[in-house]
């Protein structure tokens, strides 16, 4: 039946009945098209008429060969409890074959999307798991018909432990938990256990972290080929030899010397203060009279030598113009480092303009960026006291204090908040075409205090300020020195690179440089109910605060909200009254110098608790009331100061004990 047997359509028209010509011609055309691509099939009973028309009259047809018998179909696998259990055993999962099989049955009873999601959470993403997932989806109806009781019976008979007997709903503690949810929870618990075991092994022991978590070997091989699973290379930065300390070594668990205690409803971990530094060797501390010129010594009256931190950074701070980063704990002397950089700027201007340098210094301003308005006020007070002998004007530019254009132009040092300086730098140049017409373009020294706030919500503002300053340096080809001051940072090298610091201008100092040793105590409340947990927190805070006050010390209590400051003060006061104790200073009348100021206090809550020995401090108070609280605490008129994080960023107040109540 090749192409020769298919004659043109007009030869067959004479043999056909005239009534069926149009119908049969269409059929012949279709047969011709099919003959070009495949052999003509054997005529069937339903197509006999059309084959009669296709064979020429009188032609002899060869006998049809008997069709070969089709191959027998492969034996179909019966989807049942045994089949499903065997497939789950092949995965070799830590969860258990019986539990996986029961979870697959439950997943098959859902819709397609929910089934796929449930299977992914249950089986994982390995090659075998994905293959089984596709097989289960193709046989969804049969899998859903499997009885979980049969799976458990087979698993028990073969020695494989199965999950507990199923229950549609399990009532425990008033909550309804279905069996699939418990299976998912058990799976998550197993993964967490594997993760903890992998972390406990550590990288130094050669354990592959990803492989220990159950990732596929082929996937890990591809990742290693791309270099994605290699441990990051540690960056090198030149910092002090003293910074090479034991506490920076990678280790797990509590620091050495830590002790753990268990109390009624709480657990307590006590970390001792770090080891004290050895006494300084001869020549390690720089003398002020030999390190600074005569005009600069007036800013360090009463100081004979610089401390260890200041002596170490002195060559970079005062004798160079490099950008620098200093990471050190609170109270280590970072403010004096900032003062050294200011004096370096003054020395430059004095060298070029002689004694008449103040007018020119106004065009070479120093800008100090403080994170909070309270800290800005303190910096203005300190710098004005130190630099006032040189005739240098220090002005505050924040939301509380507004300056006229003339006052801002006349100031030599501006102390600003990040948001305020962000607004100023957005308007640099003023559209006049003269880049020296704006405050931002006249800045020659930018000091960013508490720069570790880059990781907080306000970090974007600090990042914009630094980036805009760097852009101004590139566009105007003028030098603006960037100085970053920060608490101890784990990634100080990255922050130094962000500021454009070289390796020899990044300095790191650990907690042993703190002038007063710091002992840390972490208390975890084990109560489950919220009411019991709050009661235990109040009780523990009361015990610590009263113990410190009875020894003659002052206490600061940090809370998470403004309302909580007054609530905590009242709670401590009422507990002391019930126990015949007191937080007030009973030596004479310590509030006498502040009576007139308390009468004009706008914050009535402060006047309420101050007689009991408490003061309040938060951003919702007016500036005068915040200052009054700080003066009361600094003078020792009150023993306990309840405050928010407003007071945490560098405001220096004397406190022997600091309580952080809660972790909200």
Provide a descriptive summary of the structure in words:
This protein is an alpha/beta fold and 664 residues long. The N terminus is likely disordered.
Topology readout:
Layout: H1 9-12, H2 21-35, H3 48-54, H4 81-90, H5 97-108, H6 112-123, H7 127-138, H8 140-144, H9 148-157, E1 170-172, E2 175-177, H10 179-201, H11 209-212, H12 217-226, E3 259-263, E4 266-271, H13 288-291, H14 294-297, H15 308-318, E5 324-327, H16 334-353, H17 358-361, E6 365-369, H18 373-387, E7 394-397, H19 405-410, E8 413-416, H20 418-426, E9 443-448, H21 459-476, E10 481-486, H22 492-498, E11 506-508, E12 520-525, H23 530-550, E13 555-558, H24 562-578, H25 595-599, H26 604-609, E14 614-617, H27 623-634, E15 640-643, E16 657-660
Parallel strand pairs: 5-10, 5-11, 6-8, 6-9, 7-8, 9-10, 13-15, 13-16, 14-15
Antiparallel strand pairs: 1-2, 3-4, 4-12
Helix pairs in contact: 4-5, 4-9, 5-6, 5-9, 6-7, 15-16, 20-21, 23-24
Pick out its properties.
664 residues; alpha/beta; 7-stranded parallel sheet; 4-stranded parallel sheet; 27 helices; 11% strand; disordered N terminus
């Amino acid at each position: 039946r090749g192409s020769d047997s298919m004659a043109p359509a007009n030869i067959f028209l004479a043999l056909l009945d005239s009534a069926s010509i149009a119908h049969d011609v269409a059929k012949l055309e279709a047969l011709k098209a099919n003959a070009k691509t495949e052999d003509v099939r054997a005529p069937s009973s339903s197509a006999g008429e059309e084959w009669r028309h296709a064979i020429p009259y009188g032609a002899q047809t060869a006998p049809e060969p008997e069709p070969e018998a089709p191959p027998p179909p492969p034996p179909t696998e019966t989807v049942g409890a045994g089949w499903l259990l065997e497939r789950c055993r092949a995965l070799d999962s830590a969860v258990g074959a019986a539990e996986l099989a029961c979870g697959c049955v439950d997943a098959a009873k859902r819709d397609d999307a929910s089934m796929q999601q449930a299977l992914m959470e249950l089986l994982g993403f390995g090659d075998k798991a994905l293959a089984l997932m596709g097989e289960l989806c193709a046989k969804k109806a049969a899998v859903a018909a499997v009885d979980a009781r049969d799976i458990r019976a087979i698993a028990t008979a073969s020695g494989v432990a199965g999950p507990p007997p199923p229950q549609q709903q399990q009532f425990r503690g008033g909550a309804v938990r279905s069996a699939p949810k418990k299976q998912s929870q058990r799976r998550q618990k197993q993964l967490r256990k594997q993760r903890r075991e992998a972390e406990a092994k550590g990288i130094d022991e050669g354990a592959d972290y990803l492989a220990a978590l159950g990732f596929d070997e082929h996937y890990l091989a591809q990742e290693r080929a791309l270099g994605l699973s290699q441990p990051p290379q540690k960056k090198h930065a030149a910092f002090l030899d003293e910074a090479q300390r034991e506490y920076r070594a990678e280790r797990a668990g509590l620091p050495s010397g830590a002790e753990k205690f268990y109390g009624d409803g709480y657990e307590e971990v006590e970390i001792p203060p770090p080891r004290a530094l050895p006494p300084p060797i001869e020549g390690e501390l720089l003398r002020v009279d030999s390190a600074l010129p005569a005009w600069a010594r007036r800013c360090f009256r009463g100081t004979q030598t610089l401390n260890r931190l200041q002596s170490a950074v002195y060559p970079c701070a005062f004798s160079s113009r490099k950008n620098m980063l200093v990471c050190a704990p609170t109270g280590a002397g970072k403010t004096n480092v900032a003062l050294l950089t200011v004096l370096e700027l003054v020395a430059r201007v004095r060298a070029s303009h002689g004694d008449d340098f103040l007018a020119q210094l106004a065009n070479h301003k120093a800008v100090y960026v403080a994170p909070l308005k309270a800290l800005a006020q303190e910096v203005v007070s300190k710098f004005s006291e130190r630099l006032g002998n040189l005739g240098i004007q220090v002005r505050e530019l924040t939301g509380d204090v507004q300056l006229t254009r003339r006052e801002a132009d006349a100031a030599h040092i501006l102390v600003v908040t990040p948001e305020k300086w962000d607004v100023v730098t957005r308007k640099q140049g003023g559209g006049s075409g003269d880049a020296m017409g704006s405050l931002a373009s006249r800045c020659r020294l930018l000091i960013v205090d508490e720069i570790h706030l880059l990781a907080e919500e306000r970090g974007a503002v600090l990042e914009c300020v630094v980036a805009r300053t760097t852009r101004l340096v590139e566009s105007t080809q003028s030098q603006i020195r960037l100085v970053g001051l920060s608490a101890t940072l784990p990634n100080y090298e990255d922050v130094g690179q962000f500021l454009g610091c070289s390796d020899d201008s990044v300095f790191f100092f650990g907690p042993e440089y703190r002038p007063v040793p710091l002992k840390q105590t972490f208390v975890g409340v084990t109560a489950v109910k919220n009411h019991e947990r709050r009661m235990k927190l109040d009780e523990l805070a009361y015990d610590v605060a009263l113990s410190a006050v009875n020894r003659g010390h002052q206490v600061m209590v940090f809370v998470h909200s403004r309302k909580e400051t007054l609530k905590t003060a009242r709670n401590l006061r009422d507990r002391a009254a019930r126990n015949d104790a007191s937080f007030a200073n009973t030596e004479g009348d310590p509030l006498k110098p502040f009576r007139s100021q308390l009468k004009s206090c706008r914050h009535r809550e402060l006047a309420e608790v101050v007689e009991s020995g408490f003061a309040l401090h938060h951003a919702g108070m007016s500036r005068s009331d915040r200052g009054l609280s700080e003066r009361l605490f600094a003078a020792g008129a009150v023993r306990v100061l309840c405050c928010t994080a407003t007071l945490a960023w560098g405001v220096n107040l004397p406190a022997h004990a600091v309580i952080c109540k809660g972790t909200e």
